[in-house]
Amino acid sequence: MTVLAEIYYIVAETxxxxxxxxxxxxxxxSLLAIFWLSAMSDSAALRSAYNISVDDFIYYKKRxxxxxxxxxxxILTTDVVVAALELYV
Length: 89
Prior knowledge:
The protein has helices spanning 2-15, 22-48, 58-63, 66-88. By secondary structure, it is mostly helical. The chain has one domain. The longest helix is centred in the middle third of the chain and has 27 residues, at 22-48. The two termini are 23 Å apart.
């Protein structure tokens, strides 16, 4: 969706200014804001689902993927924090 909106913005500004429509731009911006908010809440819900330490699972110790799981959880946490900062800035 973001790519389509950006292509429309670029074409409307440079190639064909006659197709520029303020209602279309407002619609694209509104849809992108709705999708961004839903993605932010989905990331936060996904991260909050993992509330048990990885050290508690013997499966991860046997397989040696503890670092990978911790990295995934750190990335999810960073994603949520950055999205929340963008919300308030």
